[in-house]
Amino acid sequence: MSMSCNEFRALVTRSLSTLPTHADELRELDAALGDGDLGITVQVGSAAVIKAWAALPDEATLSEALVAAGKAFSTANPSTFAALIGGGLLAAAKTVTGKDALGKAEALDIGRAVAARIAERGKSKLGDKTVLDALVPSLDTLEATDGNAAQVLAAMIDTAKQQVVATTDLQSQRGRAAWVQERSVGHADPGATAYLRFLEALRGAVGE
Predict the structure, then answer these.
(1) Cβ within 8 Å of residue 56, ≥6 positions away
(2) Which of 4, 45, 52, 57 has an alpha carbon 20 to 30 Å from 72's alpha carbon atom?
(3) Into how many domains does the chain fold?
(4) How far apart are CA 187 and CA 202, in angstroms?
């Protein structure tokens, strides 16, 4: 499981192009727990990353691609989720400095760096009902799973689905969702759901 930076950019671009179809679902989930802006954040953020990557030269490195993505996503819409994901991508860029191909090790380093920055900036941890509840366990699955990209993504998706369902029973501890306290129980976490939809989009793009 290895690809060049251009192959990686093409794959993620195809994935991001399908994410806006989930905007209404994410808006409704977020409206139950917060201000309902997650749908638009994912929609405009995805478009911004696609545009930023299209402007990069073919010889752009993995690190440069992640920096461009982080800046584009974080500034496309002024939301906490955008800032956390964008900041995570900027942190992840440092883990692949000097590398021109992405394999399992690089994917894991990128994911771990994103998770660590989200935890740090969001002052959140596993069980707080955030994107981390799906992201971190899926990365553990990535680390433990061998196979081609489609097989690994399928395993990660299974894990993320289970964790998204599990967030339904949790009470939100961070962000606007924490304000509704016990009323947050009974709703899946929007951020974790958005991450699951991204994984599913990736799997679909791999199969194209």
Answers:
(1) 9, 64, 65, 68
(2) 4
(3) 1
(4) 25
What whole-number distance in Å separates Cα of residue 68 and Cα of residue 51?
Answer: 10
- H or E element in which residue 2 lies: strand 2-4
pTM exceeding the 0.85 threshold for the entire prediction: yes
Chain segment 112-145, per-residue pLDDT in tens: 999 999 999 988 888 888 899 999 999 999 999 9
Which residues have C-beta within 8 Å of that of residue 181, sequence separation ≥ 6? 171, 172
Grouping H, G, I as helix, E, B as strand and the rest as coil, residue 187 is: coil
Phi-psi region of 98 (alpha: psi -120 to 50; beta: other; left: phi over 0): left
CATH code of the domain covering residue 53: 1.25.40.340
Domain that holds residue 188: 2-206
Chain position carrying tokens 């290895």: 2
pLDDT at 36 over 80: no
As a whole number of angstroms, the distance between CA 35 and CA 56 comes to 34
Alpha-carbon distance of 66 to 88, in angstroms, equals 10
